[in-house]
């Protein structure tokens, strides 16, 4: 009876955020697929999220460095996924969504770090300036580099959310006068990298669910979870002619399978970009750039701003 009450409370909280139980189950199905699991595992994913939400939720400290806040906006502006994420974790510090400011905000940060030392999940958004003792970026009179070195090593796990945090992103583009780098390169701490400009919030939720289940997250050589970044965008692109691929037709429909007008000669970087955009999509699973007619710009690859430009020329 207690379990039912907990689940009921969880769904009530989601309803208050505008997410019906039906929508929640729909996103759990998408989540299951994005993690590379059989659809038969959906019930396990549902249970994992319900259990996390009804018990002590993992504390999260979310740091912002050199970025545009687009990574936060990506999940906050995807209401259903964003609501599920916020019901699954306990956000102890996040400059964009917290009410506190100034000294009060700084106190919240340091109190949370001390209270949950060795237990919290650190989500980092943005790259870190390393030249001139990190003086190209500061918060509360401390450089990004100082903040990163004092807080991130105390986390249980660190998620570098977005290409800036993972590899330096646009702030690290040539000539990079501030010496901006991704978290791992800047301070030598291993991270789970979820690149993208912005990354898909579904991949963040999938990573959180795997962490809650104490599952080992297999990473590629760039630190990206294989469940989301094992295939190139080109591999699963609906603009390719997959006439003989029954699985593709079943997933995307015969109309898309017959489209066959690849954007590679327009400069699409899909063949050299690893991400699950064609299957996870954006805006609550509505679409992704190539489906909307725009070539992939390779935003989840290290150094994409320098290596992938010009974006409208065949490489």
Automatic annotation (TrEMBL):
Cofactor needs: [4Fe-4S] cluster; [3Fe-4S] cluster
Positions of the NADH:ubiquinone oxidoreductase-like 20kDa subunit domain: 68-210
Molecular function per GO: 3 iron, 4 sulfur cluster binding; 4 iron, 4 sulfur cluster binding; electron transfer activity; ferredoxin hydrogenase activity; metal ion binding
Residue ranges occupied by any Cytochrome-c3 hydrogenase C-terminal domain in the UniProt entry: 229-312
GO cellular component, one term: [Ni-Fe] hydrogenase complex
Protein residues bound to [3Fe-4S] cluster: 277, 296, 299
GO biological process: anaerobic respiration
Family affiliation: Belongs to the [NiFe]/[NiFeSe] hydrogenase small subunit family.
Residues the entry annotates as binding [4Fe-4S] cluster 2: 234, 237, 262, 268
Name of this protein: [NiFe] hydrogenase small subunit
Native species: Desulfocicer vacuolatum DSM 3385
Localization, UniProt: Periplasm
Sequence positions that bind [4Fe-4S] cluster 1: 68, 71, 164, 197
Assembly notes: Heterodimer of a large and a small subunit.
Keywords: 3Fe-4S, 4Fe-4S, Iron, Iron-sulfur, Metal-binding, Oxidoreductase, Periplasm, Signal
Pfam families, per database record: NiFe_hyd_SSU_C (PF14720), Oxidored_q6 (PF01058)
